[in-house]
Amino acid sequence: MDSARVSYFFQFLSTILVLVTFPSVLPKTLASGFSVKEATVKDLQLAFKRNQLTSRQLVEFYLNQIKIQNPILKGVLEVNPDALAQADKADRERKIKAPGSLSGLHGIPILVKDNIATKDKLNTTAGSFALLGSVVPRDAGVVTKLRKAGAIILGKATLSEWSHQRSSNAPNGWNARGGQGKNPYTLDDPCGSSSGSAISVAANLVTVSIGTETDGSILCPSSANSAVGIKPTVGLTSRAGVVPISPRQDSVGPICRTVSDAAYVLETIAGIDTYDNATIEASKYIPKGGYAQFLKKDGLRGKRLGVVRLYYNFGNDTFLHETFKLRLKTLRQRGAVLVDNLVIDNIDEILSVPSENIALNFEFKLALNAYLKDLVASPVKSLADVIAFNNKHSKLEELGKYGQDHMLEAEKTNGIGKVEKQALLNMTRWSQNGFEKLMKRNKLDAVVTPFASFSGILAIGGYPGVIVPAGYEKGMPFGFCFGGLKGSEPKLIEIAYSFEQATLIRKPPPLRKLEV
User: Fold this and answer.
1) Is 113 a catalytic residue?
2) Active-site residue 128, yes or no?
3) I need a surface site. Which of 114, 190, 500, 511 has the fewest CB within 10 A?
4) Domain for residue 30, yes or no?
5) Cα 324-232-373 angle, rounded to 5 deg
């Protein structure tokens, strides 16, 4: 047997052993009687208070789960070598600080997507070898807020490479540095591009995580991995220090197992950052007292929810037809008023004219070049350099078969010309005469749609969305998305939390056994 075959054999055998032992290494109850599995932020803080748990024990638990499960799931790209030291610091602070003086995320481990800068021993690479070894000037704005709150940066979550802005042919959840991320429920498509953030919270590799979205990258992986995702109003959270695609559409938000955890994370990371001017304008939307105050079980009562039937076309799938019919019934039973059979006036134009793609191409080139220029050190200084690096190292990255068509199209652009200006004007007009008109004309609090199918409408207008687990078809999770106008996060959280509490659909991934 040649060396390559020997290597393959042992790799295969190693994978089989991990699969066989998966059930025996899932979360256990601690000696104190506290179970970390599926524990919420509130559960963990109560366990801290009762001396049933320390942050060190919590971090050790997650590190062990990452060691065991990540070789298959590939949800975590790097683990922070200082995570245990941060946990020890949190445990010391808990002993000396006055009760109630610490934030809700104090001592809580969190993963951030690998396009979000951390000024520490972790890399920030967007999953690409081209940025490996680059040095960021500072923590990303959201990371600064997390550290100030006392959260523990456990590591970097995997993603679709360059947030899916490299190649249209690359699979969801794949990047050169980390390989192929896998949905813990089905071991297949985790959706992208914040795939690792969703995989990791779903599989109990971390308490909460942070993802980013340009169009669907929080909402889709959250839906596919039975997680809760909040795609905030653009500018509500800082994008400073995030490897960019579009300053007009990019947003940073939480991916968690529960709406309550997502609300706690959002209120921690929202707010003004002088490195991102969009946060100044959007700060007017932040409610006094934060977002946790909107976790109301009766939050659906009196809410007017629009149902756009275009997004409920499930073909011949009777199960989905019946399931979503039941979910809509639940909304009514909880006091919501459903305004059914709605149509977005200009939907045909939105779906047929490629204005978003045109804009994302030139915005990506301009924004990425500015980001790379701001780095203290980097192997690449421009999008053109990245393309050249990819060509030179295609074998190293094993990505020759996928190409880099998105990057090549972006590199062809030359600033903002007539076509680009028209694309921007189109999207502004579509949003005002489409979604906004629909919301105002029908006096809606939100639109409710299945999966992440509405992400494009929310993306082009910078609107927020919250997605909540809604069921499983043949083991594959799917969610319900509530989308609203800019600054409507309080309403969306009320609606999503009430729906979640009425259904309690989420369940952890199944125990997996070897199939012969």
Assistant:
1) yes
2) no
3) 511
4) no
5) 135
Total domains in the fold of the chain: 1
User: Which domain covers residue 86, as residue numbers?
Assistant: 35-509
Residue 306 in any domain: the answer is yes
Q: Which two tokens stand for residue 101?
A: 């003086």
- CATH number for the domain spanning 276: value is 3.90.1300.10
The one-character DSSP state at 310 is G
DSSP 184: T
- Residue 127, token pair as written in the block: 């999953």
Within a domain: residue 383?
Answer: yes
Active-site residue, from 193, 195, 197, 222: 193
453 cis-preceded (ω within 30 degrees of 0): no
Residue of 113, 156, 365, 491 marked catalytic: 113
Coil, helix or strand for 401? Answer: coil
- Beta-carbon count within 10 A of 262 CB: 30
Catalytic residue status for 193: yes
**Given 163, 200, 217, 226, the catalytic residue:** 217
How far apart, in whole angstroms, are the C-alpha atoms of residue 455 and residue 188?
22
By the 8 A CB rule, do 222 and 255 touch?
yes
3-state per-residue secondary structure call for 448-494: EEECCCCHHHHHHHCCCEEEEEEEEECCEEEEEEEECCCCCHHHHHH
C-alpha neighbours within 13 Å on the C-beta side of residue 269: 36
User: In angstroms, rounded to a whole number, what is the distance separating the alpha carbons of residues 257 and 106?
Assistant: 18
Q: Is residue 206 part of a domain?
A: yes
User: Whole-angstrom Cα distance, residue 79 to residue 72?
Assistant: 16
